[in-house]
């Protein structure tokens, strides 16, 4: 059986940019999941900040079942919560803060309730080192930055330690709202006890990707990858001399599971350490929600462009996320600014765009996915007909220059000859990732007999995952693809196809043969 192209796209089947949808109450039913896949979702995000393991296991089963019924490869991403700092419980109705008002943050084990007293407001957080690590002059942002405070002084000692802060703007705070500390160097690690439980869950349930929240340095990523290695979900590579060898491009040959890591860029420290992060991670997500709180809002677009540019230089796929079609949580159509935001992210070189609240809790999840795909369709059409130079991969992983050279060779051929599409047999080796990262404006049919690889390919720019039993030889593979393309009317006799193959075919990690083939001619 072959994974077919999504039915909704048969009039325009080959979209290059990929779409992620976040599952939630608005989209978790089996019927809605099926509709979203038909509308063009390439991957679903499970947000581990909400819901139980049992719920996420059920959602995963529903996605896998719909994928099987539709014969469409769909990836599933587990998004780890990370060390999110929150205030404690607030009295019903919330506490209204006014500019100039003094607020105390109190410590002490076991305290969870915030309170408003006659002469002061006392807030509690869930982070034990909060009072120790926040310094006078540093900002404290509550509820995604809706309320800002400035720390003025520290008082007391032991369990009586306090931070005395001044409110900078009016705002109502309610229970369990998030706290951001853009000026503070925190000692908390990126992986919490809860995260470790969900990592084990992800491995046991064979999730396709894991997203790591609040990444600050490359060490955060290494800790996650080491845990995955302990769980046999990353390859054992003790001989590595270059940490970038441990990315998914060099994970083969392998047996068993392999879970790529998505690093979410949402902290100022991550921006400072971006290039070392890119040397360690498999993918990157521009998480504009917390990033827009941690840095000046006017700088978010600048940081987004820089992140995308560097991701291209390092050959790392990049996701742009958060509030892309935010108004569609309540409206059946987006604003013009939102449409331009999505299109410009794609023009800048985003491989993947993501919907969050739009599909998780919105009133119009299906319409949001259809609109996202409509924008990618129009933008991809423009990219096919207009040259839009992007940074090409320059910083190659150890031992991958040959694969990068093959990808560059394919790009050169496409520029010199009229090519209909690119076809490869792959085990998700470095060649197919580099092919994707060169952003060649043509569909790449990626064939494999490993369904877990097909699901991961579903998230790569331009890759159309197709299932096929292992052919006996490269010549037989070309013949089978030749027949398929003509039967499906995806190409016509005489159209030129570029094949990227390894000899022997099916051997993991090998791509050493380029074939320029005219459909209908014998190989």
Record keyword descriptors for this entry:
single chain, 523 residues, alpha/beta, TIM Barrel, M1 Pyruvate Kinase, Domain 3, Pyruvate Kinase, Chain: A, domain 1, 8-stranded parallel β-barrel, 23 strands, 20% strand, disordered N terminus
The computed structural class is alpha/beta
Q: Helicity, in percent?
A: 25-40%
| CA-based shape | elongated
- Summarize model confidence as the mean pLDDT: 89
Supply the CATH class of the largest domain: Alpha Beta
- Percentage beta strand: 15-25%
The CATH topology annotation of the largest domain reads as TIM Barrel
Tell me the count of domains: 3
SS field, number of helical segments: 16
Strand order of the largest sheet: 1-2-3-14-15-16-17-18
- Spatial extent as radius of gyration: 24 Å
Could you describe the 3D structure shown?
There is one protein chain. With 523 residues, the protein is α/β, with parallel strands linked by helices. It folds into 3 domains: 17-83 and 190-385, Alpha-Beta Barrel (TIM Barrel), CATH 3.20.20.60; 85-180, PK beta-barrel domain-like (M1 Pyruvate Kinase, Domain 3), CATH 2.40.33; 401-518, Pyruvate Kinase, Chain: A, domain 1 (3-Layer(aba) Sandwich). The protein has helices at residues 30-39, 53-70, 130-133, 193-204, 218-230, 268-272, 274-278, 288-294, 300-313, 336-348, 357-360, 365-385, 401-416, 430-437, 451-457, 474-488, and strands at 18-22, 43-47, 75-79, 85-86, 95-97, 102-106, 115-116, 121-123, 139-142, 147-155, 162-167, 171-173, 178-180, 209-212, 261-265, 283-287, 318-321, 352-355, 421-425, 444-448, 463-467, 496-501, 513-518. It has an 8-stranded parallel barrel, surrounded by 8 helices. Helix 14 links the parallel strand 19 and strand 20 (444-448). Helix 10 (336-348) crosses helix 12 and helix 13 (401-416) packs across helix 14. Mean pLDDT is 89; it is low at 1-12 and 249-254.
């Amino acid at each position: 059986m072959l994974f077919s192209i999504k039915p909704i796209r048969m009039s325009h089947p080959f979209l290059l940019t990929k779409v992620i949808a976040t599952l939630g109450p608005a989209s978790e039913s089996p019927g809605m999941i099926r509709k979203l896949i038909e509308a063009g979702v390439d991957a679903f995000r499970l947000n581990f900040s909400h819901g139980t393991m049992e719920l996420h296991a059920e959602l995963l089963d529903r996605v896998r079942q719909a994928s099987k019924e539709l014969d469409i490869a769909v990836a599933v991403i587990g998004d780890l919560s990370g060390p999110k700092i929150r205030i404690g419980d607030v009295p019903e109705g919330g506490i209204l803060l006014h500019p100039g008002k003094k607020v105390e943050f109190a410590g002490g084990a076991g305290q969870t309730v915030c309170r408003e007293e006659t002469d002061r407001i006392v807030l509690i957080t869930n982070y034990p080192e909060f009072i120790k690590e926040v310094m006078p002059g540093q900002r404290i942002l509550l509820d995604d930055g809706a309320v800002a405070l400035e720390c003025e002084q520290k008082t007391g000692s032991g369990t009586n330690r306090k931070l005395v802060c001044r409110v900078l703007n009016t705002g109502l705070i309610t229970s369990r709202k998030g706290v951001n500390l853009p000026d503070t160097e925190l000692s908390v690690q990126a992986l919490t006890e809860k995260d470790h439980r969900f990592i084990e869950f992800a491995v046991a349930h064979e999730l396709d990707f894991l997203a790591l929240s609040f990444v600050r340095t490359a060490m955060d990523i290494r800790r996650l990858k080491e845990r995955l290695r302990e769980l046999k979900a990353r390859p054992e590579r003790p001989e590595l001399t270059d940490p970038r060898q441990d990315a998914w491009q060099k994970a083969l040959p392998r047996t068993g599971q392999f879970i790529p890591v998505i690093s979410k860029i949402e902290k100022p420290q991550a921006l400072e350490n971006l290039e070392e992060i890119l040397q360690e991670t498999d993918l990157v997500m521009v998480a504009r929600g917390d990033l827009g709180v941690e840095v000046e809002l006017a700088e978010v677009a600048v940081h987004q462009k820089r992140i995308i540019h560097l991701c291209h230089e390092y050959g790392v796929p990049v996701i742009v996320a958060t509030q892309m079609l935010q108004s569609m949580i309540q409206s059946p159509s987006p604003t013009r600014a939102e449409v331009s935001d999505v299109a410009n992210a794609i023009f800048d070189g985003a491989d993947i765009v993501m919907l969050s609240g739009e599909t998780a809790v919105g009133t119009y999840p299906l319409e949001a996915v259809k609109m996202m795909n409509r924008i990618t369709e129009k933008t991809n059409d423009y990219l096919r007909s207009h040259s839009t130079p992007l940074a090409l991969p320059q910083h190659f992983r150890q031992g991958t220059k040959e694969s990068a050279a093959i990808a560059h060779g394919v790009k050169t051929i496409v520029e010199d000859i009229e090519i209909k599409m690119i076809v490869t047999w792959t085990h998700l080796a470095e060649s197919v990732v580099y092919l994707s990262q060169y952003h060649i404006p043509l569909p790449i049919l990626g064939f494999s007999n490993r369904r877990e690889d097909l699901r991961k390919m579903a998230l790569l720019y331009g890759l159309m995952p197709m299932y096929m039993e292992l052919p006996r030889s490269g010549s037989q593979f070309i013949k089978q693809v030749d027949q398929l393309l003509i039967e499906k009317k995806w190409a016509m006799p005489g159209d030129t196809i570029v094949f990227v193959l390894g000899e022997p075919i099916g051997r993991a990690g090998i791509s050493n043969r380029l074939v320029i083939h005219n459909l209908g001619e014998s190989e």
